[in-house]
Amino acid sequence: MMAAPHANVASVHFLNETCKKKFKSYKNSVILDIGDGKKISGISTIGKYLLRTQDEFKDFLLEDRMAVEQWLEYRHLIENAAQDSELQKVVLKELNQYLKDKVYFVAQQLTLEDILVYHSIYDIFKTLTFLDKEKYINLSRWFSLAMSSKTKK
């Protein structure tokens, strides 16, 4: 399933601003030009490439790197949930439970996977009522933090 248009456009905008690389959005896909005529496409693939090449991740432990890759893959489930209200509830519950004792998904700071998960869940989250957001209080806290941190970068 293709990513929501908002997720790709917003992700490309964020990546262009923070990674100092050339990202483009083309037909619901994200493309990164890595030089020498080579290109990488797809948010998860690009995320894995950045995980291996960006200074932001150089001090991550192996476990943290694997956790980043896990969340990059989990984004596919989030994107599928956009079309299925029952799956949305499962995803929101899982994310809320995971964030119960965490500020961010991996590490003690906002990183790439937080932003990419944020963009993936944005369209679902914006449709939640106030009562729904209270039901997913940990996710709501993280979402607000990610949104405010993202605007400061």
Characterise this structure:
The protein is mainly alpha-helical. 63% of the residues lie in helices and 10% in strands. The chain is built from 7 helices and 3 strands, in the order αβββαααααα. It has helices at 5-19, 43-53, 62-81, 85-98, 112-125, 130-135, 137-152, and strands at 22-26, 29-35, 38-41. Strands 1-2-3 form a 3-stranded antiparallel beta sheet, covered by helices on one side. 31% of the residues are buried. Residues 1-5 have low confidence and may be disordered.
Radius of gyration: 15 Å
Tally of separate helices: 7
Overall shape: globular
Mean pLDDT: 83
Largest sheet: 3 strands, antiparallel
- Which segments are poorly predicted (pLDDT under 50) over 5 or more consecutive residues? 1-5
The class by helix and strand makeup works out as: mainly alpha
Strand content: 5-15%
Helix content: 55-70%
H/E order of the elements? HEEEHHHHHH
Strand order of the largest sheet: 1-2-3
Number of strands: 3
Distance between the termini: 30 Å
What are the key terms here?
three-stranded antiparallel beta sheet, mainly alpha, 63% helix, 153 residues
Put the structure in a nutshell.
With 153 residues, this protein is mainly alpha-helical.
Topology at a glance:
Blueprint: H1 5-19, E1 22-26, E2 29-35, E3 38-41, H2 43-53, H3 62-81, H4 85-98, H5 112-125, H6 130-135, H7 137-152
Antiparallel strand pairs: 1-2, 2-3
Helix pairs in contact: 1-5, 2-3, 3-4, 3-5, 4-7
Domain GST C-terminal: 47-153
Organism: Lymnaea stagnalis
Protein name: GST C-terminal domain-containing protein
